[in-house]
Design brief:
The protein contains no helices and 11 strands. It is elongated. The strands form 2 sheets. Strands 2, 4, 5, 6, 9, 10 and 11 form a 7-stranded mixed sheet that branches. Strands 1-3-8-7 form a 4-stranded antiparallel sheet, with no helix packed on it. The protein is mostly beta strands and about 120 residues long. The termini are far apart.
């Protein structure tokens, strides 16, 4: 079984920074694209950032220049560095990854449990 475990969420004041981590574990053969989504109350889940195995990245316009996604392939871990946080960044942040499982060698998208990020003074 494959699991994505997130950490690093919390409450920060506007202008502050926070770094999220997402560690994949289980019967993993390989991991492809990894990404971060977020969902605020009453809003649709939106893509925040994603990164390929080779390090190519994409960002939502609302976070570009403030957020940075990275990954450590050896540790099966993705990160999201969030700087200059705004109140509108408040949301539940979810990690996702395309993972091939060793037992079946079948690729599927997996999701973390979500971690709350609250930006407030």
């Amino acid at each position: 079984q494959v699991h994505l475990v997130e950490s690093g969420g919390g409450l920060v004041q506007p202008g502050g920074s926070l770094r999220l981590s997402c560690a994949a574990s289980g019967s993993i053969a390989s991991i492809g694209i990894m990404g971060w989504y977020r969902q605020a109350l009453g809003k649709q889940r939106e893509l925040v950032a994603r990164i390929t195995t080779g390090g190519d990245t994409n960002y939502a316009d609302s976070v570009k220049g403030r957020f940075t996604i990275s990954r450590d392939n050896a540790k099966n871990t993705a990160f999201l560095q969030m700087n200059t946080l705004r109140s509108e960044d408040t949301a539940v942040y979810y990690c996702t990854a395309l993972i091939s499982v060793t037992a079946s060698w079948r690729s599927s998208n997996y999701w973390g449990q979500g971690t709350q990020v609250t930006v407030s003074s």
